[in-house]
Design a protein that fits this description.
about 600 residues; alpha+beta; 4-stranded mixed β-sheet; two-stranded antiparallel sheet; DUF6311; transferase; transmembrane; Dolichyl-phosphate beta-glucosyltransferase
């Protein structure tokens, strides 16, 4: 980001005593960042194969499956971006889902060694740690001179309420370390004589970012575009921007070509491939940021533990702002102090940062404004831009995530200026320290809530399932696999990562076609069998089974080519307790008496019914 010291040159060399102090500061930041990463994820570290994130066990199961499937696809020469292992018979287009392909490939050896749940935890922890360290590197080496300033800014960004909220199982959104790298390489395009090499490097980075967090890459590109435009149009920067424009555009062109070539197949799948969809299966009004949420405190924080947290987010994984009034006040004070002491070039940077935060905050309000949980009739700018292609697939609330790095930068700039200024009156210094403490201490993160989840049956872990399913055959647990019943993908992930072979399942947790108005939806369109089992598991009431019901269920069995139906003794429900006894009675009414195999109830479907 344009500032002094610049991204192109970096700070001046330091003297040996200063270098020693800086290395000590670097080590302290690394240790603090590591401690916070482990602290936030500590509930899972107790036993990653048993524990699950309370607020989002379904997404955790999905990412574990993606890690197992990605590694299996690479080692077996399969397509890592499309699969028929789930959602039989149509398959799933993973290019329009959160496929984290790069993670799946890079961590495949670890997944085979320790299993998907433990690998998921390692990546989640490393994401938080790397986000702090890469932001610290960018700030300390390119934007501020004070290591303390860099540490304050980087640690705030990495453990801001939005990042901690998305640590509830989102391996894509917690990959915040990609953002400072993209910023660094984008502004490197200004360097004369290096546009080809810099363009290639940024193009490769864009391809990597797309393969880990496509939505996050889109938001980062939008934010950088807005910032660069505002910064370049400022009167103080027009001459510099005009001089750098030809080199910048050449490098950007190379970036587009390199990224386009590397992503040609994923982009084709995304926009024109099978099982694609337009828009999203989520309501943008529900998944928009409440205006009051910016002044509220998050649940997983010291303030939240003290009872000051709120439920203004649609769910605990989407607390994308939640900065609290003290931090908002401190941010405004920092902006004013920096503005008053800034030269015209620094004011241009501050102007661009302020405008960026305001634009994305307003866009995060979604199509209509909500205030303290009450929906108003006041239309918002997102109501217009939300109809555009690609934008219509984004959740507006997540646009608020752009505000956190802006606040982190302002905090870092302020601390840097205070450290560089001549000694002040002690009361003034104490006031600043107190202000930062009051604003930041309540936001210190607390560990994610975790619970024990139901174990994978011995029927799966022992490989017994292979005696009841033909090669590449279809097995289904009941209830059938969807986001709230993730067992099918958990079982499949275990089999793939332990080299037991493949079995297919109907349904699954994914985004695919079939939603209203041609939009996407979560999981497959329900059929009779899935609806009946959901009713039994959710309510404990056995549905009335008629001859017509039996015929519809047999049609479903043929559609899905199901060979074996399995009911575990303990079924994991992501949102509620599941009534296994009602499921057993329903299965018996539909399929006849079950077999007892290992620790599951099992129905074999006759060939005539499939």
């Amino acid at each position: 980001m344009p500032s002094s010291p610049s991204l192109a040159t970096g700070p001046a060399p330091v003297s040996p005593p200063r270098a020693v102090r800086d290395r000590r500061a670097d080590l302290i930041v690394v240790l603090v960042a590591l401690a916070l990463a482990v602290w936030v994820t500590s509930g899972l570290w107790r036993d990653p194969n048993v524990r699950t994130i309370t607020a989002n066990s379904s997404d955790q199961a999905l990412f574990e499956w993606l890690l197992a499937f990605g590694g299996h696809a690479v080692t077996h020469g399969d397509n890592p971006l499309f699969t028929y292992l789930i959602n039989v018979p149509d398959g799933v287009n993973l290019a329009v889902n959160t496929s984290i392909t790069v993670y799946a490939v890079v961590f495949a050896p670890l997944t085979y060694l320790i299993g998907p749940p433990a690998t998921f935890l390692v990546i989640l922890t490393l994401n938080l740690l790397a986000t702090a360290l890469v932001w610290y590197w960018l700030l300390s080496r390119h934007l501020v001179r004070s290591r303390l300033a860099a540490g304050v800014g980087a640690l705030f960004i990495a453990y801001s309420p939005g990042m901690v909220s998305h640590a509830n199982a989102h391996l894509n959104w917690t990959a915040g370390w990609l953002v400072p790298l993209l910023i660094w390489r984008l502004f490197a395009l200004r360097r004369a004589g290096h546009w080809l090499r810099d363009g290639v490097i940024l193009g490769v980075l864009v391809a990597v970012a797309f393969s880990i967090a496509a939505e996050g890459l889109f938001f980062t590109a939008l934010a950088l575009g807005v910032f660069v435009a505002i910064w370049a149009l400022h009167p103080a920067n027009r001459v510099e921007a005009r001089a750098a424009l030809p080199t910048f555009l050449r490098g950007l062109g190379v970036t587009a070509v390199v990224a386009g070539v590397l992503l040609s197949y994923p982009l084709w799948l995304h926009f024109a491939g099978p099982q694609r969809f337009h828009g999203t299966g989520f309501d943008p009004v529900i998944h928009s940021e409440d205006i009051a949420a910016f002044a509220a405190f998050p649940r997983r924080s010291l303030a939240g533990e003290a009872g000051l947290g709120t439920s203004l987010a649609p769910n605990p994984t989407e607390e994308n702002s939640f900065f609290g009034i003290p931090l908002l006040v401190l941010t405004v004070i920092c902006f004013v102090v920096l503005w008053r002491r800034a030269d015209p070039h620094r004011r241009a940077t501050l102007w661009a940062l302020g405008a960026l935060a305001l634009i994305f905050a307003v866009l995060s309000f979604g199509p209509v404004a909500k205030v303290d949980g009450r929906r108003t009739d006041l239309p918002m700018p997102f109501d217009l831009v939300g109809q555009l292609p690609v934008v219509n697939a984004a959740l507006p609330a997540r646009l608020a995530l752009v505000v956190a790095p802006v606040i982190g930068l302002l905090l870092a700039y302020t601390v840097d200026q205070l450290r560089a200024a001549p000694p002040r009156y002690r009361p003034t210094e104490l006031a600043w320290v107190l202000g930062f403490a009051v604003a930041l201490v309540p936001l210190l993160p607390t560990p994610l809530l975790t619970d024990e989840r139901e174990p994978i049956p011995r029927f799966i872990t022992s490989g017994t399932w292979r005696d009841y399913v033909s090669p590449d055959g279809v097995l289904t647990p009941v209830p059938l696999t969807v986001d709230i019943y993730p067992d099918g993908q958990r079982w499949q992930a275990y089999a793939l990562s332990h080299r037991q072979g493949e079995f297919e399942i109907p349904g699954g947790f994914f985004l695919g076609p079939g939603g209203p108005d041609g939009r996407g939806r979560i999981g497959p369109v329900p059929r009779t069998l899935s609806a009946l089992m959901d009713q039994a598991g959710r309510t404990g009431l056995v549905p009335i089974v008629t001859d017509g019901t039996i015929r519809e269920v047999q049609s479903d069995l043929r559609h899905w080519r199901i060979e074996t139906v399995v009911l575990a003794d303990e079924v994991h429900g992501a949102k509620f307790e599941v009534d296994e006894a009602a499921l057993l009675r329903t299965g018996t009414a539909l399929f006849g008496e079950p077999q007892r195999v290992d620790d599951v109830w099992l129905w074999r479907i006759p060939p005539a019914d499939r």
